[in-house]
């Protein structure tokens, strides 16, 4: 036997298979593919298994094909071979090199990239489908989102006033059963009624019955009489409880009569306690609170809650006993002593004894001292108790305030303030109040002492500034606030910019306007670097202050913004808008004068200045402003058109014509030619207007407005053929103008060529796809021809093209739907088209037709607030007010309409641009349009 011990490191013999003698077989795994050597052949396995079987005296096993198989079985084995057992090209002899690995990695990267691209598209599509589904099927939480946001404005008092939720389980059922029990009645036997009837009669004869018959039981008769009376009272009580002002109490399931005085007492108690509490709730709460108190006998709030429960239940004596026990068990609980004092307030002597006992246990309890002070009825007694309280609590600001408020002599008040500020040096309120009751010189000294005592207090600086303003030294306010900012920054106690704005608004509310401006000037730029978008931040601050009604603060913020950004037209416009709506005309004109000097090339500021100057009644001043603007902006068409408007409003038409002639020579645009043609048309000079249109079209053949005006002039002259030709030329020169197709179709319809009108609109829709103006005109054309089915067919196709068109929805709801279907269609339209004034007007008209006038007025108001420039909204609202409005409301609407100067809307534009109405004001146009609206 060899002595070598390194046989484990020796190579295995050829064809060696571990465990082969035990019947194990060799196998390879996926990791063995490649360089791993193959196992023994099938013949070797047969030979080894046969030898083992012979040594054991057994038959040869069938493993590895020792028992011959039939050819059919071999085919079956090959047919059902495991696909994971790779053979052929994918056998273990395959060479897997680096190129194959790199190819697999590249293919994997490509697959991942393509999957990522598809995933982005798929997620975008799924998100869009999900948003569409949520918009069409909103959740309940989304429907109540506005109500949830409104809960943020609920005050703490309103939250506290919400009633507690009681046990509603089976409450309705129990109430119904109680009513049924009360309403139950029984028929009284005739014998009982007869006996009750004869019970009070006197008999003149004596019965000779010896007792063998029935003996009359007078007690039972009296009980029956009482029972019958009770039945009638119950019925009366039940019938009376249905009326107003009647109350019935239930005791053991039967109704009882009502004591008037007791009823009033109970009613007073219910009003004092809030509302009637069910007996079941009281009993349930009593059990819980008693358990809480027994579990923890030193739980002061538990005694208070239990006492208040008994008070609500009307057991005031029990409540006093409970709170007395609470005082004994919880002598250090302030709330228990406070509740005991409150429950015994009807007996002042007892309340004082309780307060003294509580203060003896808690000498530093400020609330108990204040309660004891409130029990005193004379000023001297209150002062005495207050002084005792201050002996124990000299640092209490509340006690000092009570003592000072109870003192009437001003000198004594000053002495008390001096003592209080010396004792409580860190109380801003005491220092400021001390300064207010003192003279000017003393106040300055007091505030200086306060500033030294509390260097981090900004309120003292603000009060010092307000003091200087009250003394008339307004020039010192800015210096004081500058010093305040430096001192607070040094002490690292500078409040935020928003807090300073709030303090400035408080000063404005109390009348200290100069102080408010000084605060804004010194602090509005706090923590805003020059690189930040300070202008937008300040504009937003001014807007918020203006919304809160603090116009002086907003004016100070804008003044600071103007000083930092003198060339910003946005800031100047904001300042002018503030003065226009919440200031004086003089201040507005001064702002605009400074604005045009700072921004001489701003067209909008010049136009605004000229318009406001003209609106103030100074027409000559407006002309001078325009003259100055021409020097700064020569050849500006907007300035020329504004000058023309001024001259037309003053009925100085020759001067207007001169301006337009100069403009056509120096600032020639299609708008100038259009303005000149419109003026000549309004003045009745149709030939001159046509000449101007022809001149303009030679230079600007694609100007659809010139084509439209030319056709309208021919229509005014009843030359329909020439008008049709003008519109037809316009549709070819400006094919992207829907208005020209509409005008051409209308004049063709007027001439009786309905087929041509349809063709014109179809041609316009081809040139301008998804245009709601052309689509609604096609619907109206069919409707005017009484072809409602065709109109509905066109409308269905139109809503497919323009599902968010308020014009189409309004036409469909008001003219193609029955009255019963208008409201559902309006709801559907509002879901698809958000915030469209035309739909709001439609909803208002639907409510108007249903005589729900309040809702109609609400929706009219919503439409006007949403878009005050939509003239048809004003027209329909005025038409509504003519029937259901007051004179004050009508005057208000006309005033608002004039201020808004609406310019859009089908009805409004048709009346406003009518040459017969060009001299009429906004109010007159509104009334004419309301008469025309259908």
Element layout with pairings:
Elements: H1 42-56, H2 71-79, H3 98-136, H4 140-143, H5 145-150, H6 156-160, H7 171-183, H8 190-197, H9 218-240, E1 250-251, E2 254-255, H10 260-273, H11 279-295, H12 300-312, H13 316-329, H14 334-343, H15 348-361, H16 366-375, H17 379-392, H18 397-405, H19 410-423, H20 428-437, H21 440-453, H22 458-470, H23 477-490, H24 497-509, H25 513-523, H26 534-547, H27 551-564, H28 569-582, H29 585-598, H30 603-615, H31 619-632, H32 637-649, H33 653-666, H34 670-682, H35 686-699, H36 704-716, H37 720-733, H38 738-750, H39 754-767, H40 772-784, H41 788-801, H42 806-815, H43 819-832, H44 837-849, H45 853-866, H46 871-884, H47 887-900, H48 906-912, H49 922-932
Antiparallel strand pairs: 1-2
Describe this structure in words.
This protein has 49 helices and two strands. It has a two-stranded antiparallel sheet with strand order 1-2. About 10% of the residues have low confidence.
- Rg over CA atoms, rounded to whole Å, is 49 Å
Overall body shape: extended
Task: Indicate the proportion of strand residues.
Answer: under 5%
Helix content: 55-70%
The number of helical elements comes to: 49
Poorly predicted sequence stretches spanning 5 or more consecutive residues: 63-81, 86-94, 202-216, 229-275
- Quick one: how many beta strands? 2
State the strand order across the main sheet: 1-2
Terminus-to-terminus distance: 124 Å
Q: What about the largest sheet? A: 2 strands, antiparallel
User: pLDDT average, as an integer?
Assistant: 80
What would CATH call the homologous superfamily of the domain at 279-413? Answer: Tetratricopeptide repeat domain
Please give the CATH architecture of the domain at 279-413.
Alpha Horseshoe
What name is given to the CATH topology of the domain at 279-413? Serine Threonine Protein Phosphatase 5, Tetratricopeptide repeat
- Determine the oligomeric state from the structure: single chain
Class based on secondary structure composition and strand pairing: mainly alpha
CATH class of the domain at 279-413, named: Mainly Alpha
């Amino acid at each position: 036997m060899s002595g070598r011990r390194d046989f484990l490191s020796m190579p295995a013999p050829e064809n060696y298979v571990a465990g082969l003698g035990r019947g194990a077989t060799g196998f390879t795994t996926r990791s063995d593919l490649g360089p791993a050597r193959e196992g023994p052949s099938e013949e070797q396995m047969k030979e080894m298994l046969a030898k083992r079987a012979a040594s054991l005296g057994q038959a040869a096993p069938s493993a590895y094909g020792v028992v011959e198989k039939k050819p059919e079985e071999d085919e079956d084995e090959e047919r059902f071979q495991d696909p994971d057992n790779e053979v052929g090209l994918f056998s273990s002899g395959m060479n897997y090199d680096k190129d194959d690995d790199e190819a697999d990695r590249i293919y994997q990267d490509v697959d991942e990239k393509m999957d990522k691209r598809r995933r982005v598209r798929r997620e975008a599509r799924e998100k869009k489908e999900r948003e569409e589904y949520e918009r069409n099927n909103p959740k309940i939480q989304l429907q109540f989102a506005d109500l949830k946001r409104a809960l943020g404005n609920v005050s703490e008092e309103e939250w506290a006033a919400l009633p507690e939720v009681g046990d509603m389980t089976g409450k309705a059922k129990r109430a119904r059963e109680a009513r049924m029990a009360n309403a139950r009645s029984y028929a009284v036997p005739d014998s009982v009624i007869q006996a009750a009837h004869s019970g009070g009669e006197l008999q003149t004869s004596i019965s000779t019955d010896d007792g063998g018959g029935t003996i009359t039981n007078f007690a039972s008769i009296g009980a029956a009489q009482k029972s019958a009376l009770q039945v009638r009272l119950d019925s009366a009580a039940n019938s009376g409880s249905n009326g107003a002002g009647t109350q019935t109490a239930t005791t053991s399931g039967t109704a009882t009569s009502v004591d008037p005085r007791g009823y009033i007492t109970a009613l007073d108690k219910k009003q004092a306690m809030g509302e009637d509490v069910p007996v079941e709730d009281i009993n349930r709460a009593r059990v819980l609170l008693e358990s809480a108190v027994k579990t923890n006998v030193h739980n002061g709030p538990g005694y208070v809650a239990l006492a208040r429960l008994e008070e609500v239940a009307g057991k005031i004596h029990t409540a006093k006993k409970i709170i007395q026990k609470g005082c004994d068990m919880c002598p250090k609980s302030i709330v228990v002593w406070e509740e005991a004092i409150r429950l015994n307030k009807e007996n002042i002597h007892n309340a004082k004894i309780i307060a003294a006992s509580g203060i003896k246990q808690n000498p530093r309890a400020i609330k108990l001292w204040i309660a004891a002070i409130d029990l005193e009825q004379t000023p001297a007694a209150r002062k005495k108790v207050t002084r005792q309280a201050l002996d124990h609590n000299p640092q209490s600001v509340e006690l000092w305030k009570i003592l000072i408020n109870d003192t009437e002599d001003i000198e004594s008040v000053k002495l008390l303030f001096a003592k209080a500020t010396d004792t409580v040096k860190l109380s801003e309120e005491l220092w400021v109040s001390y300064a207010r009751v003192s003279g000017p010189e003393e106040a300055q000294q007091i505030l200086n002492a306060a500033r030294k005592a509390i260097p981090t207090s900004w309120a003292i600086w603000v009060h010092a500034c307000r003091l200087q303003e009250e003394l008339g030294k307004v020039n010192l306010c800015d210096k004081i606030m500058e010093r305040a900012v430096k001192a607070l920054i040094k002490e690292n106690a500078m409040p935020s910019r928003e807090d300073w704005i709030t303090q400035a608004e408080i000063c404005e509310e109390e009348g200290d306007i100069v102080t408010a401006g000084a605060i804004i000037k010194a602090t509005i730029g706090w923590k805003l670097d020059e690189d930040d978008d300070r202008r937008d931040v300040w504009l937003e601050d001014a807007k918020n202050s203006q919304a809160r009604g603090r116009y002086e603060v907003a004016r100070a913020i804008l003044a600071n913004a103007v000083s930092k950004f003198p060339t910003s037209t946005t800031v100047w416009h904001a300042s002018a808008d503030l003065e226009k709506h919440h200031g004086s005309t003089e201040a507005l004109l001064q702002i605009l004068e400074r604005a045009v000097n700072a921004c001489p090339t701003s067209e909008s500021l010049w136009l605004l200045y000229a318009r406001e100057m003209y609106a103030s009644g100074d027409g000559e001043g407006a002309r001078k402003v325009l003259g100055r603007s021409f020097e700064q902006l020569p050849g500006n068409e907007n300035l020329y058109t504004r000058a023309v408007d001024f001259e037309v409003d003053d009925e100085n038409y020759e001067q207007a014509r001169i301006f337009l002639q100069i403009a056509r020579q120096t600032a020639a645009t299609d708008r100038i030619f259009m303005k000149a043609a419109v003026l000549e048309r309004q003045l009745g000079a149709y030939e001159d207007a046509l000449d101007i249109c022809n001149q303009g079209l030679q230079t600007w053949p694609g100007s659809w407005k010139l084509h439209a005006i030319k056709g309208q002039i021919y229509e005014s002259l009843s030359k329909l053929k020439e008008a049709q030709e003008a519109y037809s030329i316009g549709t070819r020169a400006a094919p992207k103008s829907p208005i020209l197709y509409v005008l051409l179709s209308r004049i063709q319809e007027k001439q009786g060529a309905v087929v041509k009108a349809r063709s014109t609109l179809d041609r316009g829709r081809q040139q301008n796809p998804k245009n709601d103006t052309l689509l609604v005109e096609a619907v109206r054309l069919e409707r005017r021809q009484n072809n409602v089915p065709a109109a509905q067919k066109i409308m269905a196709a139109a809503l497919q093209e323009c599902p968010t068109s308020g014009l189409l929805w309004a036409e469909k709801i008001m003219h193609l739907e029955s009255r019963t279907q208008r409201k559902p269609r309006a709801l559907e339209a509002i879901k698809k088209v958000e915030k469209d004034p035309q739909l709001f007007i439609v909803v208002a008209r639907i409510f108007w037709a249903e005589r729900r006038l309040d809702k109609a007025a609400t929706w009219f108001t919503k439409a006007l607030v949403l878009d005050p420039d939509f003239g048809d909204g004003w027209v329909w609202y005025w038409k509504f007010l003519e029937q259901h409005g007051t004179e004050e409301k009508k005057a208000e609407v006309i005033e608002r309409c004039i201020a808004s100067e609406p310019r859009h809307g089908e009805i409004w534009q048709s009346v406003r641009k009518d040459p017969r109405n060009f001299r009429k004001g906004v109010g007159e146009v509104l009334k004419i349009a309301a008469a025309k609206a259908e």
